[in-house]
């Protein structure tokens, strides 16, 4: 009979907690537009909070009526407080990691950035929850905070280069000046396809089929030429020189006809936009200089396209009698007596 009142308080408080939980979840589902994960995150922990509320009420009634010894009542209260702190910490961590994932999806961030953001958010919440838990247990946290501050400063100084590469990698993954699979050229003469963008380094596979590993800090500080942004298609200018005696209209017609005939036969050569041939840069020292501009599907397609177009144009020039000038240099030889012979 001495436990009747504590048991009654436990049941009533638990029932009230469950009713408040149902009301709160109903309001959250109604008003949480785009935040539907919040009710889902607190749905299970809120049951524990309701039970803890009932146990706390029963423990308080038992302590007031001296049903339980004072020391045992304090220990039960401490356990309930620890349970609440742990459950709230886990719930807040889940909510924040879901928020980070949703924000990264809206901004189209990479999976590594999302993973790092979730890890940082989870770590911060757990550290705060641990400090609150230690404070609830009566442990002084001031010396712990001091030690963490000094230790964090020492670690930051010792890992300065590693941290700089880490944050440079986060910048590359978030800003996306380069992406995995892009063909890029860096300022230090590294050119090739991006294989991987990690936390410490970026790996680029060059055309020689070798992989170059570059620290992220150097990549972030260098001038980057990305041949796949904003799209993989690129214009390909081909310079062609002919003799001054050639007919410019004939040369232009040959260039355009051979390019259009090659569109359906040469892989990587695009029909749109249409090719063009212009007398640019124009009048050279010993030739008429034309520039044939066509478009290729990607950067690496230009090599085959140039080979095929130059071969076809050279054959057509030979058939049409269009001469390609050859620069001739004259050398004058002089003897020791001053008499010259050319």
Range of helix content: 55-70%
Secondary-structure element order, N to C? HHHHHHEEEEHEEHEEEHEE
Query: Count the helices. How many?
Result: 9
Rounded to the nearest angstrom, the distance between the terminal CA atoms is 132 Å
Share of β-strand residues: 15-25%
Secondary structure tally: strands = 11
Secondary structure class reads: alpha+beta
Question: Can you characterise this structure?
Answer:
There is one protein chain. The protein has 342 residues and is α+β, with helices and mostly antiparallel strands. The chain folds into three domains: 4-153; 169-226, Roll (SH3 type barrels), CATH 2.30.30; 234-320, Alpha-Beta Plaits (2-Layer Sandwich). It contains nine helices and eleven strands. It has helices at 4-31, 37-64, 70-106, 111-136, 142-158, 160-175, 216-221, 248-262, 302-320, and strands at 183-185, 191-197, 201-206, 211-215, 225-226, 234-242, 269-270, 276-283, 288-296, 333-334, 340-341. Strands 4-3-2-1-5 form a five-stranded antiparallel β-sheet. Strands 6, 7, 8 and 9 form a four-stranded antiparallel β-sheet that branches. It has a two-stranded antiparallel ribbon with strand order 10-11. A hairpin with a 4-residue loop joins strand 8 (276-283) and strand 9. The model has no long low-confidence stretch (mean pLDDT 81).
């Amino acid at each position: 009979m001495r436990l009747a009142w504590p048991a009654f308080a436990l049941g009533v408080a638990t029932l009230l907690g469950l009713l408040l939980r149902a009301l709160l979840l109903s309001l959250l589902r109604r008003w949480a537009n785009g935040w539907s994960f919040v009710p889902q995150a607190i749905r299970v922990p809120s049951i524990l909070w309701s039970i803890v509320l009932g146990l706390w009420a029963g423990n308080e009634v038992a302590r007031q009526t001296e049903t339980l010894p004072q020391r045992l009542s304090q220990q039960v209260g401490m356990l309930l407080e620890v349970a609440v702190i742990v459950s709230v910490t886990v719930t807040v961590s889940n909510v924040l990691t879901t928020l980070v994932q949703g924000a990264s999806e809206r901004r189209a961030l990479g999976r590594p950035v999302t993973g790092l953001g979730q890890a940082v958010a989870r770590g911060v919440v757990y550290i705060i929850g641990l400090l609150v838990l230690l404070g609830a247990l009566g442990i002084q946290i001031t010396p712990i905070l001091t030690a963490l501050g000094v230790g964090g400063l020492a670690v930051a100084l010792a890992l300065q280069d590693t941290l700089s590469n880490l944050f440079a990698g986060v910048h590359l993954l978030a800003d996306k000046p380069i992406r995995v699979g892009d063909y890029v050229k860096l300022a230090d003469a590294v050119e090739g396809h991006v294989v991987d963008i990690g936390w410490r380094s970026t790996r680029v596979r060059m055309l020689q089929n070798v992989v170059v590993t570059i620290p992220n800090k150097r990549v972030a500080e260098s001038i980057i030429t990305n041949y796949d942004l904003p799209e993989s298609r690129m214009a390909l200018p081909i310079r062609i020189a002919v003799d001054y005696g050639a007919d410019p209209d004939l040369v232009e017609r040959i260039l355009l006809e051979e390019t259009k005939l090659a569109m359906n036969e040469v892989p990587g050569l695009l029909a749109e936009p249409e090719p063009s041939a212009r007398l640019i840069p124009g009048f050279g020292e010993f030739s008429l200089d034309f520039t044939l501009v066509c478009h290729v599907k990607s950067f690496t397609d230009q090599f085959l396209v140039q080979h095929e177009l130059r071969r076809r144009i050279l054959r057509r020039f030979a058939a049409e009698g269009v001469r390609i000038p050859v620069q001739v240099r004259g050398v004058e030889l002089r003897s020791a007596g001053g008499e010259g012979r050319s």
